[in-house]
Design a protein that fits this description.
256 residues, alpha/beta, Rossmann fold, 9 helices, 39% helix
Length: 256
């Protein structure tokens, strides 16, 4: 189900080399934006710095990329989600309309949380390698689970509010709503790889949106040329199609 984490960084270097050589990185042959806002949310143990390349690419395509304000995504997801709510209020005031949220791994879960709880501010959610089905904890690599659990006691000591953070008994807003059904006005795309060494790819398949499969590892999804191409096409559809059309899933599409 899970591969060796030792392959993550070599694959990242391989994928970024492919991206830099590909016309997609220069935006050639891709649909372009017209100043629409896109919020980027990093994955677990990462920060906004991990999405600098994607942000620059989005800006070159004609979109306006916004960062989440997360230096390291290690806090209680509920606390992070509440900070994102405040950021979201800022962005929607500036952009005067709903935006698209792109999240990598845990960032995709946070993006879905925003879509569920703040539908007037979110048009579409794009999750990259996110464990969107948490019915089976073994769908996330044990090392990642351990790292998350090791941080839980620190959160609990910092505030009584986080005493059950990361446990099955957690009743915070994030834990109880992140996996709720999305409102009809919010659509979603899940982009994942069957070669993912961190998240079981089957946990990334959704029934209420579009599924796109690519090749490559988990970490490198943020520099994967096929992901960039899929994101560009998805963003273009977000502003030209109605939610009813965009949310219709026609099965799994393969980008390669």
């Amino acid at each position: 189900m899970h591969g060796s984490l030792a392959t993550a960084y070599p694959d990242y270097l391989y994928q970024i080399a492919r991206l830099l050589r590909d016309p997609v990185h220069r935006g050639e042959g891709l649909p372009r934006g017209d100043g629409q806002a896109v919020l980027l949310i990093p994955g677990f143990l990462a920060g906004d710095w991990s999405l600098l390349r994607m942000a620059g690419w989005l800006n070159r395509l004609g979109y306006r990329a916004y960062f989440s304000g997360i230096d390291w995504n290690v806090d209680c997801p509920n606390a992070t989600a509440m900070k994102l709510q405040w950021r979201l209020e800022q962005f929607t005031t500036e952009t005067l309309g709903p935006l698209v949220v792109i999240g990598h791994s845990l960032g995709g879960l946070l993006a879905r949380f925003l879509g569920v709880n703040f539908p007037t501010a979110i048009r579409h959610v794009i999750a990259l390698g996110s464990p969107l089905d948490v019915s089976d904890p073994d769908r996330v690599h044990p090392a990642v689970q351990s790292a998350f659990q090791l941080l839980a006691p620190l959160r609990r000591r910092s505030s009584p509010e986080f005493r059950s953070c990361g446990s099955p008994t957690c009743t915070c807003r994030f834990a109880t709503t992140a996996f709720d059904t999305l409102p009809s006005s919010v659509t979603m795309t899940s982009i994942y790889s069957t070669e993912d060494e961190v998240v079981d790819w089957q946990a990334s398949v959704i029934t209420d949106g579009d599924n796109i499969a690519v090749s490559g590892g988990h970490l490198s999804l943020i520099v994967n040329r096929d992901v960039y191409r899929a994101v560009a096409e998805t963003l273009a559809r977000c502003w030209v199609q109605t939610p009813a059309v965009l949310s219709h899933s026609d099965g799994i599409r393969q980008f390669s």
